[in-house]
Amino acid sequence: MQIASHASRKGNTQLAQELKTLVDDLQRVQSAAAGPRAVPIARPAGELTGLVEASYPTTRLSDMVLPGSITNRLTEVVRQYKQRDRLRSHGLTPKRRLLLIGAPGCGKTMTASAIAGECKLPLMFVQLHSLITRYMGETAAKLHLVFEAMGRAPGVYLFDEFDAIGATRAARNDVGEIRRVLNSFLQLLERDDSDSIVVAATNFVGMLDEALFRRFDDVIEYGLATGPMIRTLIENRLGSFNISGLKWNAIARAARGLSHADIARACDEAAKQAVMSDSREIDPALLAAALLTRQAMHKTRTQGRGR
Question: What is the pLDDT of residues 44-61, one digit of tens each?
Fold first, then answer.
């Protein structure tokens, strides 16, 4: 382009135009070879303002502590996404619609971040509190805007607490609007052929409409941490501290029944105590006490839901 500009200034307009045409042709070829790319969105504007919150995660699947079966399924989603053009050239569709179910704090939201990080896509967090309104038809219209954005700006679109719009249409307290919203979601999901990945996550799988399950490419259920996973979680979280004094059998008993998030928070509490005591060693008694505190909090939450 510099040579073309120089030629133009010298009056050789034909050479300048030929060079510009060559550069334009090369850019088109390179763009076509690269395929669709994620459009950087620091802050969605216009009609999407308040509906979608964008971020660029650096999380990877290797950062997560999950059963091997789940890790393999998520790895396959990433592999198919990276080879989506090859699959589509053979009339095949990559896995790009995921439904994640399970207890709170077990890694569903982090999974969306990890997939975004692996695929080098932005994480587009759909703000359900802005999406769902009390005005008839407005929620479906906003939902349509989100699906339109999937085509313009490829990303991992996360619908957290998905039961808010995916609740069964047979619910007794349904007044009709939720049926229209769910029908709109099903139709939009069915028609979507973008390069975006749709992730829906819920803690209440029993509330979801049956029609949803066959619209997703994979339904992945997350559970609480087990013995080996508990140890890995703690080792990862407290990797910068000396944890050689931990009695793993006792720690596993104290952590049994807790979510990944609860165990991580208990580790953080024990780490804070070590830092404030100017120590690099984790006190086993303090970590056990922090885990038991999370157990008590979990029990309180469960009893509260029971009422």
Answer: 556 677 788 999 999 999
